[in-house]
């Protein structure tokens, strides 16, 4: 069974480590804030000048004046601070972000990512994605394995305008967790109930499959 958006975020949260400074992109990545392991200290950063985001807000905790870079309402954790966008990008470009989580339209087997535009469609802009893929120490992508037509989004080579080249290390889709290395997608885990053959059929790029592929575990 394919993972929900929340389950993708929950699996990505397992990549966090104590003391990390983390930037969460728009969409599924934002939900990772709800699954930070108890007792782990992680500082969430937003390009518009907020360090210390809390969990994604409920109706009771929404503050319309408190937003992230994607114009989504957020909460602030104890110890949060606010600063200019210039300072925020200095933090990103200076290599002070340990991990960023981004959505994507396409990722290819070399680790390149296309996430900011589809030609012919209206877009809001690239935001800070290009700075993040260049400045963050580690990048994890949250995405659907295939598009609405059933076509793979994990390709031999991206077809859309690139956000970054050879920069993605790990992907969590609704079907699997994969690592990119040595010019291929390496299958690490599969969603509960999803067959390896299904993942193979929906991966257009080179896929390396080990003898045993465990199912993802959720607490």
What is the element layout, followed by pairings?
Blueprint: H1 5-13, E1 21-24, E2 43-46, E3 50-53, E4 76-82, H2 85-93, E5 99-102, E6 106-108, E7 113-114, H3 129-135, E8 138-143, E9 154-155, E10 170-173, E11 176-181, E12 184-190, H4 196-201, E13 207-208
Q: What would you note in describing this structure?
A:
It is a single chain. By secondary structure, this protein is of the alpha/beta class. It has a single domain (5-208), classed as Glutaconate Coenzyme A-transferase (3-Layer(aba) Sandwich), CATH 3.40.1080. It is 14% helix and 25% strand. The protein is built from four helices and 13 strands. The chain has helices at residues 5-13, 85-93, 129-135, 196-201, and strands spanning 21-24, 43-46, 50-53, 76-82, 99-102, 106-108, 113-114, 138-143, 154-155, 170-173, 176-181, 184-190, 207-208. The strands form two sheets. The chain has a ten-stranded mixed β-sheet, sandwiched between helices. The protein has a three-stranded mixed β-sheet with strand order 7-6-9, with no helix packed on it. It is globular, with a radius of gyration of 17 Å. The two termini are 17 Å apart.
- What does the largest sheet look like? 10 strands, mixed
Silhouette = globular
Number of strands: 13
Low-confidence stretches: none
- Report the CATH C-level class: Alpha Beta
CATH-level-4 superfamily name: Glutaconate Coenzyme A-transferase
Spatial strand order of the main sheet: 4-3-2-1-5-8-10-11-12-13
CATH topology value: Glutaconate Coenzyme A-transferase
H/I helix tally: 4
Helix/strand structural class: alpha/beta
